[in-house]
């Protein structure tokens, strides 16, 4: 597919909500120290500073690199200072610096597999962690190392539409109408896009009594309305909000809410479909790196803190659905009850999902409109 926006980052300078729309290269956020942040290149798995990859050599000055998915940057920007304060209060004389790298989830996993020295990964689908298990970088029992199968919070797929919903979009079926233009992250390379695709496909199976032929026809009609597949969830949001492309953005609930609050207040609104997919956000220690750096204990503490009450409430404040049911219930005003399905309950394991839908020549490739485009890989 041809490149629609080869110079999109430089042509559209961003501010406010969209200031961190780099989907592939992100500047790490250093917290709890005065040193300059390290820049991580998620595209090729390299670091522009050797400090992230080298053993610290000082047990009292700890550096952790969290390699994460695109739209998690807002959560970890606020979570990291909470953890630093807690860790240093409990570990007298020790200092910890947290660095961040964000991009499309699967691209991030590939970057770690290719050598990016992550201490921890915080992804938006299990297959990205399983890739690192297969590479021998993450322990086989990673799901058992933390509560809830190592999922501290979840999200779901919703629609973001223009003010007053001019195209009257209420459910997945409305996305197949002529004249509706959809903005979507690329399902071949991003968790955001995959969950969106699975949400549509799952809705089709649900509506057509598990009839695969009718479901494929439905999804094919929907994908005809996608002019461009973006390289990450945040890049898709930028395309929709800043470039004013599209009638509807399909994205995570937390991303949609942050878009409304931080940039598009009064200009866009959220639509909850009648039946949609639940998105798990798993975390894991990259044992091959922490063993080398001697950061295993700090990495475990970092991820453990995701289940603390302050972190769970922070997740809810940022429209992520906390795994703690009591905290979720307290935030029902901003996280309404919805009818969702888990991908594994409908489609099987992530290995099955990737093999059927997202491999080259898979169901997505079969159904995607050949006239659709992909955004520049340099974004």
Can you put this structure into words, describing what you see?
The chain has 379 residues and is an alpha/beta fold. The chain has 2 domains: 8-153 and 281-330, 3-Layer(aba) Sandwich (D-Maltodextrin-Binding Protein, domain 2), CATH 3.40.190.10; 155-279 and 336-374, D-Maltodextrin-Binding Protein, domain 2 (3-Layer(aba) Sandwich). The protein is 37% helix and 18% strand. The chain is built from 16 helices and 16 strands. Helix 2 (73-90) packs antiparallel against helix 12 (309-317), helix 3 runs parallel beside helix 4 (126-134) and helix 6 (191-207) packs across helix 7. The longest helix has 18 residues, at 73-90. The chain is globular. The model is unreliable at 1-56 (pLDDT under 50).
Keywords:
379 residues; alpha/beta; D-Maltodextrin-Binding Protein, domain 2; 2 domains; nine-stranded mixed beta sheet; four-stranded mixed beta sheet; 16 helices; 18% strand; globular; disordered N terminus
| Low-confidence runs of at least 5 consecutive residues | 1-56
Radius of gyration: 20 Å
Structural class: alpha/beta
Q: In the CATH hierarchy, what is the class of the largest domain? A: Alpha Beta
Number of structural units classed as domains: 2
The CATH homologous superfamily of the largest domain is called Periplasmic binding protein-like II
Q: Counting H and I runs of at least 4 residues, what is the number of helices?
A: 16
| Residue fraction in strands | 15-25%
User: Shape, please?
Assistant: globular
The name of the CATH topology of the largest domain is D-Maltodextrin-Binding Protein, domain 2
Please identify, by name, the CATH architecture of the largest domain.
Answer: 3-Layer(aba) Sandwich
Largest sheet geometry = 9 strands, mixed
Which range best describes the helical content: under 10%, 10-25%, 25-40%, 40-55%, 55-70% or over 70%?
Answer: 25-40%
Give me the count of strands: 16
Mean pLDDT, all residues:
85
